[in-house]
Amino acid sequence: MTIDRIRDKVLADKRLTRKDGIELFKSNDLLTLGRMATHVAQQKNGKRVHFVQNMHINPTNICVNRCKFCAFSRSKGDPGAYEMSIDDILNKASGAGKSVREFHIVSGLHPDLPFSWYLDMLGSLKKEFPKVHLKAFTAVEIDYLAKLSGLSLANTLLKLKEAGLGSLPGGGAEIFNSSVRNTLCAEKISGARWLEVIKAVHKIGLKSNATMLYGHIETYEHRIDHLLKLRELQDKTNGFQAFIPLSFHSQNTEIKKSAYTTGFDDLKTLAISRLMLDNFDHIKAYWVMLGEKIAQVSLNFGVDDLDGTVVEERITKAAGGTTDGIMTRDDIVYLIKQAGRTPVERDTVYNVVKVWK
Ligand code: V47
Fold first, then answer.
1. Please, what CATH class does the domain formed by 18-50+138-352 belong to?
2. CB atoms within 10 A of CB 354
3. Residues near ligand 1 with C-beta < 6 Å?
4. What is the pTM of this model?
5. What is the pLDDT of residues 198-253, one digit of tens each?
6. Which residue ranges make up each domain of the chain?
7. C-alpha span between 3 and 28 (Å, rounded)
C-alpha cells in the first residue's frame, strides 16, 4: 500500500517527493499519518512543545489591497476602519505585562503613512521595551515599505533592522500558485516575490516564519507545490524557523465556503507539512484559528509549537474565529502537559526560557 511505502521512506529519513505528498493528502489513514509525523517531530524536538508569551498588535486595518479571503481590511473612511498612533501602540504594548517577550506586529498596507513612521514605531517600542523582540511585517508589507522608502529591498531591511526589527512573521504567503493567487488576491505580490523578499530577509541575518492559507479554492497539488517552494528556499538559506498552516475562515469574506476547515483536514495538513518540510525545525499550530482542542490534539500530528498567549487577535476574529484570542501561560502549559508532552517556554528565536518537568 502507498502509505506503507511512504512510511518506509520516512523511517529511513528519505526526502518525500511531490507525488508522495499528494498521495498522503489523498489518504484517509489519519492515524498512520499522525504516527509518521510524530516520529519526525520527536526526532527533531523530542517531547518538547514550545510556546512564547507574546502579544499581537495590528496598528491599522486600512489596506490598499482587497484580498477576497480577508475580512479584516478596510478602505480609509469605511465603517470599522481604524489606525493607531505610535502612542496608541505603546499604550497597548504596555498592557502586555512584564513577562511578554515578543510583539507580533502586522497591518494593512496603509495608503498614507511614510516609511519614517514605521522606523519611529519600531524605535519607540524598542526604547520603551528594550527586552521585547519585535517580530513585525509580512513579506508583503516589506515589499510595500521598500516602495515607500525608495531604497533597495536590502537597504530597506537594513534600516528596519537598525530601528529594532528582530524577525519576520510568516504571513502573506497564502498559496504561491499564480492562478489561485490571481483569483484570491490579484493585487498582492506574487508568490515568487514573497520568496524573493524572504530570501533577502534571511540574507541580512534575520529569521522568519512561513505560512500557508488552506481550505479555500486550492487543490492538494497547490498545497504540496507551496510546501516544496518553501523547502527549496530553506535548503538555500536555512532562515525559516517555523511553518504555520493557517486554516481559512470564510465569514465576512468574498469566498463562499462552509464556515471552517474540518478537524480531519487540519490534522492532515499539519502532519503532511511536518513530513514534507524535513528542513524546518518547527511546525506550529496556531490555536487561534484551529481552536484550543484541535491544537492540542495536533501534538500527535507533528506539531511542536503552540505559538503564544496572543492576547488580542483581529484577523481571525473578523472572519468568524471563535476562540477568545487569549490563553494564559498556565492554560498553554496545561494543554501541553495533558497531552503527555514537556512544555517549553521559548523566546522568538527559540532560546529556552523555562522547561516544565
Ligand atoms: O497573512 C487572512 C491569513 C495571516 C484569513 O509567523 C486568514 O508566527 C484564515 O500570518 N482565514 C496572518 N487566515 C496570520 C499569520 C500568523 C499567525 C500566527 C503566527 C504567525 C507567525 C503568523 O492570516 C495573513 C493571511 O495569510 N488570513 N485572512 C482568513 N479569513
1. alpha beta
2. 10
3. 69-71, 138, 169-172, 174, 209, 211, 213, 244, 246, 248-249, 253, 286, 289, 307, 315, 319
4. 0.98
5. 999 999 999 999 999 999 999 999 999 999 999 999 999 999 999 999 999 999 99
6. 18-50+138-352
7. 10
